[in-house]
Design a protein that fits this description.
This protein is α+β, with helices and mostly antiparallel strands. Helix content is 20%, strand content 21%. A five-stranded antiparallel beta sheet has the order 1-2-3-5-4, covered by helices on one side. The structure holds guanosine-5'-monophosphate.
Length: 118
């Protein structure tokens, strides 16, 4: 089995994806199974498995990912209303163990945090 994560393979162009943005620190792709009309993934090139594994020295990268999320939201025309989600750990629904930020938009969010959904 390859030691590279799925997202590293996408970053390395070993697997296809819709690449919306990239720079020296991260890449942004469309989610293959969108949970909202706009569903993008902001993925650092550095293969940090999950948010809680980020080191003190990764702070600038963490900030950059947040900035890129806003930037691609602007590019997608959804900067007025989007949600940023990070699933940390299997128990929280993380399935790909290479840190990524979900940028979700164009979906009604009013009820998402109701008790039924927690
Ligand atoms: P997680 O559940 O780890 O927070 O999110 C992983 C996300 O990656 C899911 O939303 C899933 O649909 C997406 N995903 C899984 N495999 C692929 C793939 O091969 N290509 C793309 N673009 N997204 C993927």
């Amino acid at each position: 089995m390859s030691e590279e994560s799925l997202f590293t393979r996408i970053i390395n162009r070993e697997l296809p994806a819709d690449i919306l943005y990239e720079d020296d620190q991260c890449i942004v792709i469309n989610d293959i199974s969108p949970q909202a009309p706009v569903h993008m993934l902001v993925i650092p090139r550095l293969p940090i498995a999950k948010l809680a594994d980020a080191k003190h020295s990764d702070r600038a990268l963490m900030g950059h990912l947040m900035w890129v999320a806003g930037e691609v939201a602007r590019m997608a025309g959804v900067s007025d209303a989007f949600r940023l989600v990070v699933n940390n750990g299997k128990g929280a629904g993380q399935t790909v163990f290479h840190l990524h930020l979900h940028v979700l938009a164009n979906k009604g969010f009013q009820d998402t945090f109701s008790e039924d959904n927690l």
